[in-house]
Structures are given as C-alpha cells and as structure tokens.
Design brief:
It contains four helices and no strands. By secondary structure, it is mainly α.
Length: 111
Amino acid sequence: MFSITTTVAKSYRLLASTATALIIGTAMLSTASAADIATSYNNSCAACHDSGALNAIKKGDSAKWQQLIKQKGMPALIKSVKSGMIQMPAGGLCTDCSDDDYRKLIEYMSK
C-alpha cells in the first residue's frame, strides 16, 4: 500500500511540474509573439499608421479600426493588405508577413 501511495504522489508532482513548465513556456511564447508583432509594426506599418499619412487609420484609433473591421471583415482586410491599395503598397511593406501576421498587425493597430 505504501508503494502505491508513494508512486501516486511522485506521479502527481511530476504532472504538476510538467503543467507548470507548459504554462510558463506558453506565456513566454505569447510575449515573444507580441514583441515580434510590435517589431513588425515598427518596421513596416508605423511609417503611415503612426502619423495618419496618406489617410491611413492611426494606430490606437479603436473606433475607426472597429468600424472598418465590422464593415469589411477581417478576411477582406487581410486581402486588401496583401493586394495593396491606392495609397498602400502590396503587403504594407512587410515582405515576409503571413495572413496570421497581418491579422495580428491589424488587431495591434486597432488597440
């Protein structure tokens, strides 16, 4: 009986430490991902979206961003970014962004 109790206790401690490591690792990846999006924004989007140049919606103008997201929908916005617009080059100056990166960048600018 003693060995079963000991085995269960050891298994519980191992499971608890593994779960803790997984939670910490996920948090670290989320922070790294957020830092990557901020860097991508600064390297590609900020030139126009910080100042509103060429009628770009400014970063942080939540009301305008939410209105645009509601009006067009995220998939259409991503397509517009990828294709470019009259005032914005294709890809919005981000040459290696994925669709998910564009979504994250739009969300980042809308906050």
